[in-house]
Amino acid sequence: MALIVSIIDGWGGNLTWDALIADIELRLHSRYTRQALHKHVRIRDAFAFRKKGAMTREEVKRPRGSIELRKAMERIARLEAENARLEAENNNLLSQFARWAYNASIRGLDATYLGQALPPIDRDRTRPAK
């Protein structure tokens, strides 16, 4: 999933589900449907964020000069798009946390209760008897 999100972050040109599916198949040698990709929240949000108007490679002015300079500019554009997507993702998670905190407080759950450690995992319980 992280690889697909990074493909979306570095996307240049017009982004469509069909083009994304073809690129994923070319790079990862796996074929997905639009519906399968759309079920993953991070992929769906990254796709929507990119479509909403994040900077594409064509919007970056092509500098004259060396190939290294052009590659560096493309990398900067990809990293800026990834940074903007991660900021939006972080803001969504912060608002989700605020909703959860409010809902927990109106039900009388305090921070001590919510901060309890998870129970230890008993791996022997899931192993078949010998």
Give the topology.
Blueprint: H1 2-9, H2 17-28, H3 34-38, H4 41-53, H5 67-106, H6 111-114
Give the N-to-C terminal Cα separation: 37 Å
Count helical runs.
6
Question: Major beta sheet, specifics?
Answer: none
Order of helices and strands: HHHHHH
Give the overall shape, derived from the CA principal axes.
Answer: extended
Give the rounded overall mean pLDDT: 86
Alpha-beta classification: mainly alpha
Strand content: under 5%
Oligomer: single chain
Uncertain segments: none
Relative helix content: 55-70%
Count of DSSP E strands? 0
Rg calc = 21 Å
Q: Which descriptors apply to this entry?
A:
6 helices, extended, 130 residues, 63% helix
Structure description:
- By secondary structure, this protein is an all-alpha fold.
- The longest helix is centred in the middle third of the chain and has 40 residues, at 67-106.
- The protein is 63% helix and 0% strand.
- It has helices at residues 2-9, 17-28, 34-38, 41-53, 67-106, 111-114.
Summarize the structure.
The protein has 130 residues and is mostly helical.
